[in-house]
Amino acid sequence: MADNKLSIEDMAVFCKKKGLVFPSGEIYGGLAGFFDFGPNCVEINNNIKMEWWKFHVQEREDIVGIDGSIITNPKVWEASGHVASFTDVYVKCRKCKKPNKIDKNEIKKARCECGGEYEVIGNLNLMFKTNVGPVEGSTAYLRPETAQLIFADFKLVAENSRLKLPFGIAQIGKAFRNEISPRDFLFRTREFEMMEIEYFVHPKNINKCPFIKEVLNHKMNVLSAESQEKNKSPVKITIKQALDKKIIKTEWHAYWLAVEHKWFINLGANSDNFRIRQHTKNELSHYALDTWDLEYNFPFGWKELEGIANRTDFDLQQHIKHSKKDLSFFDQETNEKVVPHVVAEPSLGVGRAFLVFMFDAYNDDKKRGNIVLKLDPKLAPVKAGIFPLISKPELIKIAREIYDKLKMIYNINYDKSGSIGRRYARADEIGTPFCITVDFDSLKNKSVTIRDRDTTKQVRVKTAGLKDILRKLIDAEIKFKDLK
Ligand code: ATP
User: Fold this and answer.
1) Disulfide engineering: 93 pairs with which of 112, 145, 203, 429, CB 3.0-4.6 Å?
2) Per-residue pLDDT reduced to its tens digit, 272-319
3) What HEC string does 374-433 produce?
4) Which residue's CA is minimally distant from atom 23 of ligand 1?
5) CB 23 within 8 A of CB 434
6) Model confidence over 203-244: pLDDT tens digits?
């Protein structure tokens, strides 16, 4: 992102201009921390979620998914500690009067952007309350994370899915937090979507990850709690080095940090814009033994993109205590009943992932005179634009036939209005990776041109093979330059 020097406000303006994201209920002035998503953004977000699900659930034998409800029995949130402890310190700047939230350990230390001192107003629980049914006083909460229903449903899911330790349960869904100061566009909102995994391990195997070899050579920028205390910079090291030097304490934590980083890189994000940072002692949540964040170099600094906490057996034990149900799990390998430990909880917001992919894809191409959104084809909202070169019935007929065929598989755009240059520019701006043009040669030899968004190069291919070529290009089975 750094090369583009695009601010978060610029990104918000671009997203609004392209109809991707806009303030919710804008005709009434919007509502802070809530956004609506337009047609192309729904496609991008669906693609992000689909790619996440494929990578973390479908392609793995050890992870299954659930979809819990947004409102559940409030006892879930009492047991988890959210009713008592999911609070932020609410402060107000004495100088500019802006409200903000700070961590408990920042009281008396943190200062407002304007340099003013903060006055502590109090603690604010971030859960939205609601009332269930006609009787006032039946308080329930909109979930502030998806994790808790994974724990509450743990036994049912684990036994029905016939899982064996170690295994994970994943969930994608909306979460709500009454943030004191929503800001930075989609970075901090009051309603957002989360993609989370609780990864359960036998208590005896909290440091034995059978997959660790897959990531030992993976390199990352690493900033430990100790380095932060000593004011040191991050170091770029391999996972093996991080484990050997005991910078990352457990193999499982190291494994999940690398896997999550890889997920972003495989989908076209720029590796240099990522680092992992360990929470200092004062920062740790009430449930966490150790937490590392995958951070991204946002225009407003290095910030948490994804949290990966070691939650131990805290949550399952809490639910055992409060529900008085046996949530232990029979481990066939050791013939023991155990309460598994969550050694890693990768927890990522869809909105923050969207920002990362957008910042790393955004290119202001001065030569072309338009923005080129170089999104990975898998994430692009429209996979191909189909254009008749000019509005002649014989060209339109072929273009429509191609469109009708391809739209059964992908989100495809048919566009016949404006010059071909204008149509290419419109496609570039929403990240359409390929444009297919039907011209007069198409009539003669049943062929079309495909244009590559990133290079603007065009090649002519037979119409009959188009579907297969497009699929291979999107799935990265072939490169555009290999097309003849
Ligand atoms: P922060 O310190 O930024 O408030 P957190 O530590 O409270 O975040 P977690 O509880 O770890 O956040 O949430 C997991 C992930 O959910 C975050 O890494 C982020 O991607 C996303 N997330 C959390 N809060 C928000 C929010 N208010 N708006 C958008 N995404 C969020």
Assistant:
1) 112
2) 999 999 999 888 877 788 999 999 999 999 999 999 999 999 999 999
3) CCCCCCCCCCEEEEECCCCHHHHHHHHHHHHHHCCCCCEEECCCCCHHHHHHHHHHCCCC
4) 349
5) no
6) 999 999 999 999 999 999 999 999 999 999 999 999 999 999
